[in-house]
Amino acid sequence: MMFKLIKKIIPVLLISIGLFSACKKDKYFFDTGVHTPNYNGTILEYLKAKPAYFDTLVRVIKVAGMEDVFQKENITFFAPPSSSIYKSVRRLNNYLRLQGRDTVSKLEQIRPEVWKETLSMYVFQGSYRLKDYPQLDTLALVAYPGQGYFSYGKRTMNIGVLYNDAGGVKYAGYRQLYLSFIPDFSKPLERLVNIPVASSDVAPTNGVVHVLRFQKHNFGFDTDRFITNVVTSGILPAN
Questions:
Q1: pLDDT of residue 174
Q2: In a domain, 118, yes or no
Q3: I want to staple 76 with a disulfide (CB 3.0 to 4.6 A). Which of 14, 61, 108, 124 is the partner?
Q4: Handedness of CA 216, 104, 182, 133 (dihedral sign)
Q5: Residue 24 falls within a domain, yes or no?
Q6: Per-residue pLDDT reduced to its tens digit, 148-177
Q7: For the residues 132-143, what does the mean pLDDT come to?
Q8: Does the residue 167 lie in any domain?
Q9: Is 203 helix (H, G, I), strand (E, B) or coil?
């Protein structure tokens, strides 16, 4: 009788363990607000420690020649997961095929200056946590526009915290950080590309990391702009 009971319990335990493991992995990209904020290592070391999420991103940092920035400087980094980079490169290759041109098979074929210019839009000097940013309301930008910040590459990006509603009370719910791309500086509150943060306030030893939600983002914000920059700069041969 005991043996039969154990046989019934074991599958349930295995399923529970599997679900728990999946939740641990998924919560990193979704808005659970549950994670250990401190990391005993630099931002670059933090990214390298999570290859399932950031292996391609780490390669881009290397190709861009920005390893020292992530290793030695004090920065705030809105980390785009590797899947967002893959989506933009895939769009680039679709464009190249339509043009009858060779596709990109290695990240190194895209020139370092393109990677650096694009990656720099996610990097800001100094350490800034969610509490340091102003309120953002994407439906009422005139009242709550967030704020413009100079990125590492000196492009102005908009950053703000969305206050969600709760129990019918406006702005009483959980708060979510957003990084926004401004397509037209003459109309800074129009057509913003708003990217939500899934995990905020991760604290390595040389700054702060906010992980962007991968489903909502293509690397470079405006994929057509990224493609234009790559093609204009010239694609290097695969060998």
A1: 93
A2: yes
A3: 124
A4: positive
A5: no
A6: 999 999 999 999 999 999 999 999 999 999
A7: 96
A8: yes
A9: strand
Burial class (CB in 10 A: 0-12, 13-18, 19+), 179: buried
- Name the nearest CA neighbour of 113 among 230, 239, 237: 230
State the CATH number of the domain containing residue 54.
2.30.180.10
Please, what is the end-to-end C-alpha distance for the chain in angstroms?
66
Could you tell me the residue range of the domain that residue 141 belongs to?
43-233
The alpha carbon of 189 is separated from its chain's Cα centroid by a whole number of angstroms, namely 22
* Res. 9: pLDDT tops 70: no
55: Cβ contacts below 8 Å, ≥ 6 apart: 82
Structure-token pair, residue 153? 């590459």
Half-sphere exposure of 211 (CA within 13 A, CB side): 29
Long-range contacts of 48-54 (CB under 8 A, 24+ apart): 52/25, 53/28, 53/29, 53/81, 53/82, 53/211, 54/79, 54/81, 54/82
Tell me if 17 is assigned to some domain.
Answer: no
Retrieve residue 36's tokens: 């250990």
How many domains does the structure of the chain reveal?
1
- Residue 22: partners with Cβ closer than 8 Å, 6 or more residues away: none
